[in-house]
Design goal:
2 domains; alpha/beta; Chemotaxis Receptor Methyltransferase Cher, domain 1; 12 helices; globular; Rossmann fold
């Protein structure tokens, strides 16, 4: 029996809805992939056609109940601990030293936002390295927020249970120190790391209500957006940084390779994938063009 697939017309409508709600652009070449992911929702809801599903998520009742499942189905959620060794070496040494040098006595608060956090490995990796490298860590107020548009991955992140793939780049010493064995070969994060991170829903098209972060991770996210949405998201994250705060984007840096982004980037380039928000009085090298943030 031939598997049901989206027609080109249905794909266009669904892809438009994805862009409307998330800013993610789905290329025409992803028709089969999108069909496969949504087919699972059809089975769960006992629907026969994609047209029925589309009408459901456009209805008032379906929009409220099914939209979270729809967003979870159409977004990519692969993640693992310590992804990109060089980045985490930079974080554990240079950024920790930056926090130590810039935070005065009585103001030892570090705020970190892991945007589009998926199942939380990135946010928890940051928590582990702060535990390991920040001097007198218990004297610090560490606030790490992970956000995503998929409630399914947020629930998984809060649980803190990971498979072997997720910890495949984590040393045996760290696994022993920060995880406990769980059922079916899984690994459960210890409470002292779980308690350092909170997870919440957030759409990157919108201003972050908690704002003013010392560090924002925006890794492997921009590649899913078109140019205007890239500008908007960089604007949102730039606004959420404190002066002197850092933005870390993905392994493949689109800002350096797309002239339109490079020309209007309001942050200073520091190293591959890493940008810093200028401090007042130190903005001479910053391009005066601003990215869209509203």
């Amino acid at each position: 029996m031939e598997l049901l697939k989206l027609t080109p017309e249905e794909f266009t409508k669904v892809a438009r809805l994805v862009y409307e709600k998330t800013g993610i652009h789905i290329a025409d070449s992803k028709l089969s992939l999108l069909s496969n992911r949504l087919r699972k929702r059809l089975r769960a809801l006992k629907l026969d056609t994609f047209e029925q599903y589309y009408r459901l998520i456009r209805s008032k009742e379906g929009y409220e109940e099914e939209l979270p499942h729809f967003l979870s189905a159409v977004t990519t959620n692969e993640t693992y601990f310590f992804r990109n060794d060089q980045l985490w070496q930079f974080f554990g040494k240079d950024l920790v030293e930056h926090f130590v040098q810039t935070k005065k006595a009585g103001q030892k608060t570090v705020r970190i936002w892991s945007a589009a956090c998926s199942t939380g490995a990135e946010a928890y990796t940051a928590a582990i390295l702060l535990r390991e490298n920040l001097p007198n860590v218990k004297a610090w107020n560490i606030q790490i927020i992970g956000s995503d548009i998929s409630q399914k991955v947020l629930d998984a992140a809060k649980a803190g249970v990971y498979n072997e793939y997720a910890v495949s780049r984590t040393s045996k010493q760290r696994i022993k120190r920060w995880f406990t064995p769980a059922a079916d070969g899984m690994f459960q994060l210890k409470d002292e790391i779980l308690k350092m991170v909170r997870f919440e829903f957030h759409n990157l098209q919108d201003k972050h209500p908690a704002g003013r972060f010392d560090l924002i991770f925006l890794r492997n996210v921009l590649m899913y957006f078109d140019l205007e949405m890239k500008k908007r998201v960089i604007g949102v994250t730039t606004e959420a940084l404190v002066p002197g705060g850092y933005l870390i984007i993905g392994d493949v840096d689109p800002v350096r390779t797309i002239p339109e982004l490079r020309e209007c980037m309001p942050l200073e380039y520091k190293r591959p994938g890493t940008y810093q928000k200028p401090i007042a009085g130190k903005t001479e090298s910053v391009n005066k063009k601003q990215l869209v943030s509203t």
